[in-house]
TrEMBL record:
Tagged with keyword Metal-binding: no
Keywords assigned by UniProt, alphabetized: Oxidoreductase
Pfam hit, one: adh_short
Domain of life, per lineage: Bacteria
Family: Belongs to the short-chain dehydrogenases/reductases (SDR) family.
The protein's name in its UniProt record: SDR family oxidoreductase
Organism: Actinokineospora xionganensis
PANTHER family: OXIDOREDUCTASE, SHORT-CHAIN DEHYDROGENASE/REDUCTASE FAMILY (AFU_ORTHOLOGUE AFUA_5G02870), SHORT-CHAIN DEHYDROGENASE_REDUCTASE FAMILY PROTEIN
Length: 251
């Protein structure tokens, strides 16, 4: 699949930067979108970087026009969270969360598929979160945006039937991002325990349904992404859970 074009959102840091960088390393021509300026982004220099704020309807509507061609793979990874320290989120914060996490992927996918030549296959992989199954007082707005994304993704998959495109979902559990790993390390050092012990304790307390003892690493996410992309049209509507069972046994 090398030599093909990929478009990835949310690439300035974290999982998005990792996915885009891995695709570029594997020979893909990658265009990535991030909120940070290029000089502060953590993504590989091999990625063609576009700085853009996906909370803006005007920005979303103009992204496809900036591309030389419709990509063969689209990865929707961009995400935003309300600031928990700020207390009850204001309405504009809720709207921004919904726009970035749910409406932007939906609108961008529709625009890209409308611009796609009929003979070109396009795989769209939407990154979602197991938080849709576990909303609480602090995470309700974020979880609601991800639940909306799940419903909209189902609609996109239905619209893609017989159109030489596939829209699938990669549902992720607790990720081992740098900040989380560092926090675990500090707690372990303070308590005189190992990071592995603190990680197991955290995961078991935070989600009783979880049946793994470690965070999900970025490489596992990339392998799952490649798997979905390589399935072709049969992946349309597919949900791939990489969540350690955190959604519960009957989901």
């Amino acid at each position: 699949m090398t030599g093909k074009r990929a478009f990835v959102t949310g690439v300035s840091k974290g999982l998005g930067a990792h996915l885009a960088s891995c695709l570029a390393k594997d020979g893909w021509q990658v265009t990535g979108v991030g909120r940070r300026p290029r000089e502060s982004a953590e993504v590989s220099a091999a990625v063609d970087y576009l700085q853009a704020d996906l909370s803006s309807a005007e920005v979303i509507g103009g992204l496809v026009a900036k591309m030389d061609a419709v990509p063969d793979l689209v990865v929707h990874n961009a995400v935003t969270y309300p600031d928990r320290a700020a207390g009850r989120p204001e309405l504009d914060t809720i709207e921004t969360t919904m726009r970035v996490n749910a409406l932007a992927p939906y609108e961008l996918t529709l625009d890209l598929l409308a611009a796609k030549p009929d003979d070109q296959f396009c795989s769209v992989v939407v990154i979602n979160s197991e938080s849709v199954y576990h909303a609480d007082a602090d995470s309700a707005v974020y979880a609601a945006s991800k639940a909306a994304l799940r419903v909209l993704t189902g609609g996109l998959a239905a619209a893609c039937r017989s159109t030489n495109a596939a829209v699938s979902t990669l549902m992720l559990g607790p990720l081992g991002d740098a900040n989380k790993v560092e926090e675990i390390r500090r707690i372990a050092e303070k308590r005189g325990a190992t990071p592995a012990e603190i990680t197991r304790l955290f995961l078991r307390r935070s989600n009783p349904d979880l049946v793994i003892d470690d965070f999900i690493d970025f490489d596992a996410c990339y392998l799952s992404l490649r798997y979905l992309a390589e399935l072709g049209a049969v992946a349309n509507g597919m949900l791939c859970r990489l969540d350690g069972g955190s959604a519960g046994t009957l989901v």
